[in-house]
Amino acid sequence: MAETAIRLRDVQLTLGTGRSTVHVLKGIDLNVQRGESVGIVGPSGSGKSTLLMVLAGLERADKGLVEIAGTPLGGMSEDALASFRGRNVGIVFQSFHLIPNMTALENVAVPLELAGSADAFERAARELANVGLKDRASHYPGELSGGEQQRVAMARALAPEPAILIADEPTGNLDQETGRQVADLLFAEQARRQMTLVLVTHDPALAARCGRTIAVRTGVIHDDGHGSAAATVPAAGPAASPVGDAALPQAAR
Fold first, then answer.
1. How many structural domains are present in the chain?
2. Could you give the CA distance from residue 145 to residue 148 in angstroms, rounded to a whole number?
3. Is the peptide bond before 141 cis (omega within 30 degrees of 0)?
4. Which of 43, 57, 152, 251 is the 20 to 30 A CA-CA neighbour of 121?
């Protein structure tokens, strides 16, 4: 039997208070197997990016089970959760989130240094070479193209050798050709390392490259990618709406 990398049961999340309350996730059930690639799609405001942040351990669910790599996240302290995330989950964001006053090499080394790796810079250099940026290691983010910045971000996510890679609109800020190149690299690394990949995208072509596509609308999974739609849709609450991409964790998109 395949090993389960991600397991969600009745996951619910509400943002805001009073009249501004937004029911973002409304009872999500989801299994993702080890080594599987899953694309999450849905309209803006559907809750798909919030779901991704819950999977990444960057947003806590109000209710339900979130189990990553066999470990329930609900009872963890913030420090324990950060440590667990650093060992098990790599994250690639649409907006790169590189530190502007650090070189590409230093950016990639950050999670390794935080984990206490004695050879952080050697490993970071290998990852940069692996994504084709060996000659750009000493450049700062402002000196790199968008595609190069996203490859640095990918190298940073891959450097700790996580079992699970989470990607939120990884090609969303790139032109079509650069986006295709980044996607090629993303799926090549997922296959080579046999990682579990979960990504959110508005791009049907990118989603189609995943082994399974999950459709989310108004905080509910309407199609789990196995040919079955959600049996019951909770009563509609206030519609989910974007809060913004700048803050971490991200709100519903």
1. 1
2. 5
3. no
4. 57
Q: Is residue 181 part of a domain?
A: yes
Q: Are 171 and 201 in contact (CB under 8 A)?
A: yes
pLDDT in tens, 181-229: 999 999 999 999 999 999 999 999 999 999 999 999 999 998 887 754 4
pLDDT digits 0-9 by tens, 99-124: 999 999 999 999 999 999 999 999 99
How long is the chain?
253
**CATH no. for residue 177?**
3.40.50.300
The single residue listed with the structure tokens 């994250």 is 91
Q: Which pTM value belongs to this model? A: 0.85
Residue 91's contacts (CB-CB under 8 Å, 6 or more residues apart) are 56, 58, 157, 165, 166, 167, 168
| Spatial distance between the Cα atoms of 231 and 118, rounded to a whole number of angstroms | 51
Token pair for residue 81? 């959760």
In a domain, 72, yes or no: no
Helix H or strand E segment including 120: helix 120-130
